[in-house]
Amino acid sequence: MSDATTGKNSASNSAMNSLMAYQRDTEALGQIAGRLEWDQETMMPRGAAEQRGEEIGALEGVLHARRTDPRIGDWLEEATPSDEEETAYLRHIRRTYERQTRVPAKLAIELARTTSVAQGRWAEARSANDVAMFLPTLRRVVELRREQAAALADGDGPEALYDALIDDYEEGASAASLGAMFDRMRPRLVALREAVMGADHQPRDLSGHFPADGQMRVARKLASAFGYDWNCGRMDLSVHPFSSGSGTDTRITTRVVEAEPFNCLYAAIHETGHACYEQGVDPDYLLTPLGAGVSMGVHESQSRIYENQLGRSRPFTGWLYDQMTETFGPLSVGDADAFHGAVNRVNSGFIRTEADEVHYNLHIMLRFGLEREMIAGTLAVDDLEEAWNTRFERDFGVKVDQPAHGMLQDVHWSLGLFGYFPTYALGNVYAGCLNRALREEVEGVDEALARGEATHATEWLRENLQRHGGLYTPRDTIRRACGFEPDEGPLLDYLEIKFAEIYKL
Hints:
The chain is mainly alpha-helical. It has 20 helices and three strands.
């Protein structure tokens, strides 16, 4: 080997080592920012919102400066990957660097500060059922996100701004591809909804009083059943359930309504799915670009398969029925079969997070259409409530009775998360594919679920998907786990079979 080659290799190794050491500190600071946001939702005094906005804005300034440091460009130019992992490291860092350098630091800081404050103002407006309280803040958030999208967009087509925002959450997806997927899904979902709602057999709802402490005890049992590592996690209460963190510090929240225990319990399972994904990533990837879930669509595939295909299955709800009767005494539904019907009961409810599997994707389609128009500038923020209410009545057949059940129900737009909502439906599609592959490859899944053990399923998911973190692209992550190209067919087949049985169609 020549001296020139040796020198080149040495420079490449030095660049890679410097880049990864620098990235490790950036990842650690990003985790600290996430912990501030977790605290804001769970522990922070209400009066601290304005100060917290300044704190988060200041930290975002530090992170933006680090992510756009010119040395990153130099290291990327010099570094040569030696294996698959280093190739993936460079792919992620290059993508982040190229996107971050397009966004002015002043805009990044203002967006972080504004959305931090907006979160509290949304919560106040939701509590007061007053849209007008929130509109000035939402207008500002939309303005800033459109400005950011313009900086990030490739091209100037009608969907360029929204596509730039989607790319924050699902690399490779676009408004056109997601819209086409929704167009294929809608007819079968609507037909299934009409058949179910018109069926002669209608499962009874669960009624009664379920004290908060009992709900939280059951919620913790559910998280444990799905493999949540309590040594590296915790469960708290928040207005809107969420999961936060990664690696050895992964936190989940749920919420309690004492007359509606499924809100708490299935939110807990859902967020456990997110957290187990983070806990399942190869520990060697901790505080690297590969050390977290690869995209929100893939993330949602984990929360949705835990919550629905596993958590709402007849075997698992049979076990949950026993836990509920042990905790709360006799239930208003007479047996485990009736309880399974209650868990999966279909109704045109207002709230997305409480929606049944038949209606859930229709909720996402509603939000997708509205935010697509807001970012394009064809729907004014001041007209959002009327547009929401009109489309909800058209799609669900009922009128919105109050803003907290309408456009104020979700926290996402206050946080500026435009482009996030469609990943929920994409996660459902991915979960349908994973469920098919899981049941083809693993024996005894239902028998284990009937004992309250999700280990057969979670071990398969951990081995085939979770441990890889960000090693592969989102769609490739699902394809490798399933062994086939993902599409909406397995999800729709699953829904039709399941609800035909429950509703005796």
